[in-house]
Amino acid sequence: MITDTDNATKIAEFLLQIKAVKLQPNDPFTWSSGWKSPIYCDNRKTLSYPNVRTFIRQSFTQLILDEYGKPDVIAGVATGGIAHGALVAQELGVPFIYVRSAAKKHGLGNQIEGEYHEGHNVVVIEDLISTGGSSLKAVEALREGGLNVKAVVAIFSYGFDEAAKRFDEAKCPLKVLSNYEILTERALEQGAISNEDLVSLKKWRNRPEVWGQ
Question: Which of 19, 70, 77, 136 is most deeply buried (CB count within 10 A of its CB)?
Fold first, then answer.
């Protein structure tokens, strides 16, 4: 999923620096799923830092061009992928659309917002991949709309086996700019976490549903 390790390390450094990612193995967060987690990721914060925002936009653009060529359209997944997706579409000079989590219950009842055409190639932009559920719902909606989904690309992934399995089953490539392994190793090098913390963080990544119980 990582195509440029140096670039991935730089993005991990940015995420740690601006506290878009927080690591608290001794004071865990609780996700909406009920899972206890030693990490919290809010990539929306990257939009508040022009240098970080620019680096992510350029990284997304280069990855897409290198791996898939210039698509006909870029799609952002609501809500975290919308702003980054629009920035990438602007950089590439292609149309932008976005995918809601569900179709609107009023008006035209759209789930996909924006202009698109059947048969167009689309790359999907996400801010974060956890279990992959919301991203693949967007992929399904785009495919039902007649679009050819080339891949989902995201800023960051926790690297759960469940997510990898889901993307494989959906026959949808997934590429990420940085990931959990690179970020935690960089945090250790910076002294932000200890070796003991790293052991705990790896245990969480392997079995997040039971960690902390």
Answer: 77
CA 3 to each of CA 32, 44, 48, 59, 179: distance values in angstroms, whole numbers, following the listed order: 31, 23, 26, 11, 11
List the structure tokens of 74: 């870029």
CA angle 182, 159, 122 (to 5 degrees): 105
Q: Tens digit of pLDDT per residue, the chain (213 long)? A: 777 899 999 999 999 999 999 999 999 999 888 889 999 999 999 999 999 999 999 999 999 999 999 999 999 999 999 999 999 999 999 999 999 987 766 665 689 999 999 999 999 999 999 999 999 999 999 999 999 999 999 999 999 999 999 999 999 999 999 999 999 999 999 999 999 999 999 999 999 989 977
Asked if 41 contacts 176 with a C-beta cutoff of 8 angstroms, the reply is no
3-state helix, strand, coil in the chain (%, to 5): 45, 20, 35
Between CA 6 and CA 120 the distance in angstroms is 32
d(CA 172, CA 175): 10
Task: Decide: residue 168, CB within 10 A, 0-12 exposed, 13-18 middle, 19+ buried.
Answer: exposed
Q: Which CATH class is domain 5-206?
A: alpha beta
88, burial (CB in 10 Å: exposed 0-12, middle 13-18, buried 19+): buried
Check residue 53 and report its DSSP letter.
Answer: H
Question: Quick one: tokens of 101?
Answer: 């989590």
